[in-house]
Amino acid sequence: MSAERPAAAADTAQGASPPPGLDAAWAHPLLSRMMRGRRDRQRLDQRHPWLLDTAVVVIVVCITLPDLLWGSGNAPFGGRDSRDQLPFGVLCAFAAALVIPLWWRRRAPAVTYFVIALVSLAQWSLGIWLSAGISALIALYTLARHGSLRLLGWAGALAATEAALAVFVLVPVEHPLLGLFFLLGTATAAIAVGLTLRIRQMYLAALEDRARSLEIEHDQRARLTAAAERSRVAREMHDIVGHNLSVMVGVADGAATLATNRNEQSAEALRILADTGRQAMSELRRVLGVLREGQDGTRMLSPQPGIRDLEALLARVRAAGLRVTYRTVGDLDSLSSGVQLTVYRIVQEALTNTLKHAGTGSAAEVTVTADAGTVRIRVADSGLPPGLPVGAVSGPRTGLDDSGHGLVGIRQRAAMYSGSVTIGPRETGHGWIVDVALDVPALSASGDHLP
Q1: Residue ranges of the alpha helices (H) in 262-390?
Q2: Is 241 part of any domain?
Q3: How do the residues of the chain divide into helix, strand and coil, expressed in percent and rounded to 5?
Q4: Phi, psi (degrees; rounded to nearest 5) at 423
């Protein structure tokens, strides 16, 4: 994550409703500096992993050398230790044994601590105190921060036991209780600091992971929203443009037939117009396919049609040559705008399907009924005119139009209102029927949304 990630994560989190305290945590300047410093140290440690370990060893050596060279032998809690009775080389060996394991403290924290603890116990058994014993605290801190928590418990118990043995049994001191309190306090502080930094590191890692998750969630939500919007726009374009093109093609075919019967010169031009319309419909299907997979978030802001617009729709269909009868039952004006739009689109698609597959020589019956919380739309046509083979107009009907957006769209719209759909040949054997029943519990003009 970059240095600007906390602010970006906060912005991302606003759209995904994160926990209330997360934004404030990201915005806090102290946390930002901590994360920036942590990243800098991590990068340096990844490039030169030996640098920090070497620095710790050098610091401890610098603390130890004055005690080895000029130490007076006074014990830290009163009295004198036994260093005067031991050769200088032995003291140096003990100091080296306490300091050198720190080189591996992060790679093997448990082993490092237990080795240093064993060396410390050995030096105390000889009655000496070395300032290199600070290595035990560093190793204990490292175990608390990077090692196993189960082993940390054993290490804490071992540290307490060794401290008690040192002040009460192994090394003569004048103030054993003060010595025990000091040793236990420093060991506890080392463990506490290690655990605190470990928890802080886990917390920062959790915040970074949370920020990444929020970014991914935000991107996914944006893509899903865009996909849903593209699908809706594509469906609306198919319903509107596809229907109008079908009417135009039907009118052009009818005019071409009439011009041919009258031996007029415009017949060829009208046939070209009809063929061009069919080609435009084919291109429209391709464009809608791209639109469903592309990136377009345009909303349709024009008023959506309703029940009252069915008369204009039927007038255009009749002008194309299809005989349509229309009947309504119930108070359709009280239906919500969303239900009215659904009814309109279902009728539009069913009549477009009739024009496409049965042609202008057939007839259709449209019935819309609203009763007892149910809206029923029934569109039935008479099928192909006598004498025309199946598929003479636009191919045989199979329950789905060629584009896959028409009758499938009817089922999708009906599913929004838990409706049932029946699409197929009529029982009489002639014609096609689209029968949709919508479950509309409250027939009111409010409380619904446009699909």
Answers
A1: 266-293, 310-319, 337-357
A2: no
A3: 65, 10, 25
A4: -130, 125
Residue 327: CA atoms inside 13 Å, Cβ hemisphere, count?
A: 8
CA dist 77 and 283 (Å) reads 94
272: in domain = no
pLDDT digits (tens, 9 = 90+) for 71-89: 666 667 666 666 767 788 8
Domain membership of residue 152 as a residue range: 5-219
Q: Per-residue pLDDT tens for 237-288?
A: 666 677 777 777 778 777 778 778 887 777 777 778 777 777 777 666 666 6
Boundary of a domain, candidates 219, 239, 255: 219
Do 204 and 323 lie in a common domain?
Answer: no
Residue 238: exposed, middle, or buried by beta-carbon count in 10 A (0-12, 13-18, 19+)? buried
Alpha helices (H) in 294-401, listed in sequence order: 310-319, 337-357
Q: Are residues 192 and 324 in the same domain?
A: no
Let me know whether 212 and 310 are in one domain: no
Look at residue 368 and give its three-state secondary structure. strand
73 and 171 co-located in one domain = yes
Count: domains in the chain: 2
Give 326-366 pLDDT, tens digit per residue.
999 988 888 887 788 889 989 988 888 888 877 777 889 99
> What percent of the chain has pLDDT above 90?
11
Chain position carrying tokens 């009215």: 340
Residues 6+ apart with CB under 8 A from 119: 94, 97, 98
Q: What is the pTM of this model?
A: 0.44
Domain edge (last residue) among 174, 194, 219:
219
CA-CA distance, 438 to 441, in Å (whole number)?
9
Place of tokens 């299907």: 285
Residue 294 lies in a domain: no
